[in-house]
Write a structure and sequence with these properties.
65% helix, 176 residues, elongated, 5 helices, mainly alpha
């Protein structure tokens, strides 16, 4: 839940970046709304990657940043560009919505997909190591180790090894 909130906080900042850039390109520089949208999305993607890298998924930042940036562009960037351009064409081109309102709707439509892509593809956690199975289908070494740590200390411990069992006694009275 915390990661989802961080993702949305970064997304909110990214929305400001994207809308400001779109307004600058469209109204200030008189770029057509489609290329202006693509440029604004790219700026927001770069902005969001930097924040996600340092905050949202900082615990998963091992390995190469360049690889994550490429995965981020292939996942979140492509989704953002496709959703934004597709919906802008419909909302502005066909329905004649104001371009900033249309862009807000496009951003909202892509947010859930972008979170899942970031969480599962870009900033994925390392896969857990498989448990090593002991012979003859008994419990794994990891399970036995965990049980040993959680079991209260006893003077006698039984250790199972496949079909064999041994009893180790450390302070049993010897009859004296």
């Amino acid at each position: 839940m915390i990661r989802w909130l961080k993702f949305n906080a970064v997304g909110a900042m990214g929305i400001v970046v994207q809308l400001a850039a779109l307004a600058l390109f469209k109204s200030g520089l008189h770029v057509d709304y489609m290329p202006a949208t693509a440029l604004a999305v790219e700026l927001a993607v770069l902005h969001n990657f930097a924040w996600h890298e340092r905050w949202t998924w900082r615990d998963r930042g091992r390995g190469g940043r360049g690889g994550r940036l490429i995965r981020f562009h292939l996942a979140n960037g492509l989704v953002s560009i496709a959703v934004n351009l597709g919906l802008m064409r419909i909302f502005v081109g066909r329905f004649h919505w104001p371009y900033l309102a249309a862009n807000m709707a496009a951003i909202a439509a892509g947010s859930v997909v972008n979170f899942l892509a970031g969480d599962r593809l870009v900033f994925r956690s390392a896969a857990p190591l498989p448990a090593v199975a002991a012979p003859f289908g008994s419990r794994s070494v990891a399970d036995r180790s965990r049980d040993e740590r959680e079991r209260p200390s006893r003077s006698a411990s039984r250790i199972e090894d496949g079909h064999r069992a041994a009893l180790f006694v450390d302070d049993v009275p010897d009859g004296r």
